[in-house]
Design a protein that fits this description.
With 680 residues, the chain is an alpha+beta fold. The chain has helices spanning 51-62, 74-93, 102-115, 117-123, 129-136, 144-154, 196-215, 220-239, 244-247, 259-265, 271-278, 291-303, 306-321, 327-340, 350-361, 363-374, 377-400, 406-417, 442-458, 506-523, 544-562, 578-599, 612-623, 630-639, 645-653, 657-663, and strands at 11-12, 71-73, 160-167, 170-180, 256-258, 285-288, 420-424, 480-482, 487-491, 565-567, 570-571, 626-628.
Length: 680
Amino acid sequence: MRRSLLIVGLLLLAATFALAQNASTGSAKPATVASFDLTAIDKSIDPCTDFYQYACGTWMKNNPIPPDQSSWGRFNELRERNQTILRGILEKQSAENPARNAIDQKIGDYYFSCMDKAAIEAKGTAPVKPYIDRIDAMKEKAELPAVLAGLHRGGVNAFFEFGSEPDFKDSKVNIAAAGQGGLSLPDRDYYFKTDAKSVELREKLEKHIARTFELYGEPPAKAAADAETVMKVETDLAKVSLDRTEQRDPTKIYHKMSTADLQRLTPDFAWNQYITTIQPPSFDSLNVAVPDFVKGMNQVIAANDLDTVKTYLRWHTLRGASPVLPKAFVEEDFDFYGKTLRGAKELRPRWKRCVQYTDSDLGEALGQAYVAEAFPPEAKARTLKMVHELEAALKQDITELSWMTPDTKKQALEKLSRIDDKIGYPDKWRDYSSLQIVRGDAMGNSVRANQFEFNRQLKKIGKPVDRSEWGMTPPTVNAYYNPLENNINFPAGILQPPFYDQQADDAVNFGGIGMVIGHELTHGFDDEGSQFDADGNLKNWWTPKDKEEFNKLEQCFVDEYDSFVAVDDVHLKGKLTLGENTADNGGLRISHMALLDVLGTTPTKEIDGYTPEQRFFISFGQIWCQNQTPQTARLQALSNEHSTGKYRVNGTVSNMSAFAKAFGCKPNAPMIRKPACRVW
């Protein structure tokens, strides 16, 4: 059972889907990933007409989507390499060896248990039966809070999420937090769209739910009726949920109140019973992210009978457990979430799924071995040097802004000076000593890992925020800015080719990881990050005039990206993707400034027929090379905060006069946007 913890305010670099890992070659040797790739370029295309096609066209032609994937890009290439490294580590430690230390025993036995198909098949549905039995044993709805607490501890996402987070207005302290949840589709809008594809998707979800109930032993007629019941409950929950765009506004997901006030919102759900069962530290106030959702959830509980509530809980329990149940459940889960929703043709090899689960549940245990193999201390030092060069460029950019007044500039520069830089891996590794991993118990290990993490989050309530903690594991190919802590985080997994290559010239590295660094720094000043001050508190530090001007400049990005077609008649959502688009545009501009500072007045020469600035832009373009199934392109456009690769490239370079100059573009070229959008 896998649970998405309530973590508010993390702004991820790249769209990451659960099934967006690379196809397997089965090789134990990590593949080499090229940085600046001359063979990827399509020279039949004018870079001033379609720069993305120019930088990536041949790569896209030569890299079709593997059958077990729904998308394939440069991120996937690096994830594949990292997964192969992790596989080698895990296969070595999965052998029973009394000489293994505690960490190696946990990661090795977790992986072995996940890979032990025979044991999983032999156990059948027995591992999930106690949870289903507990649901079925309910005699009245008054038992729901205690039952739900047990399910949440084990990783079941039903009705709502509960955890801890920094207080938005006092970010040095963790508070309890309750957020919306309990849906099977990626966003509330999926339940209400009336176009043919959306209607078909809901029909297929209902059939998937019914088939899952049948696999657990329900007769077909009852399974079909139960699936219809689940869809009705989820549709009612969706009606009171915020959509993803609204959730990007921190003022809409921060409503601190007393537990007594929370209880008044839900007369049919006893929060004291839920809280007593999960056993957190004592607290008398919490953030109720979406009060209207909590009130609506209460209405759903009150309006439905006990059998309906049980049916809904059974579904989410089976859904959460499916990845570690027998083959029939795994394949049924893939049929909807992999094939129907994302367009993958084949299930990923088991070893890749087991590597992913181990990284998810024991990431800082597995990450120690990964760092030792793939990220030497000198790599951390080199990356930190580049971060400082990018921060200097952003400082210059803010200082020279024509639209911002001195008072706001002073606050912006203070915030920039206070950003903490976290590179590679934590200074202190997580302690997993209380987590029991049992060889041969795949689902039990998954449940206990979720219980461990759930408890770890609860223990933070009322405690000072540990800003040295990481929200991603070291092998992750991603990065993030945390507005509540005002820090940027770059796991070792992304500090590899094609993003950073110690053998490459400065232009290539600044176009790759330099842009990523600039992107994350800019998140501190996008439409969401700009609402938090240097301490990470939700506080307005803008003059009214500057905020008005900022909003006007941001609207240019909204309009630009609204015009881009993702697939068929589906456009990108400019408001949903605004933060990422602001960060892409600002990040590339800042990294270009930093590159020019590094190059200085030293005469530059062409390499491979390209000037340093051309190599910079091509390197940037190539980190976003990707192919996607139509289903995944649609899913990303409707529910993800990131634009697709093509528009992350073309949408950004079209706003930069430096790009036009580097490639000699004429004023009326398609890659020259008029008027150009710019904030930072």
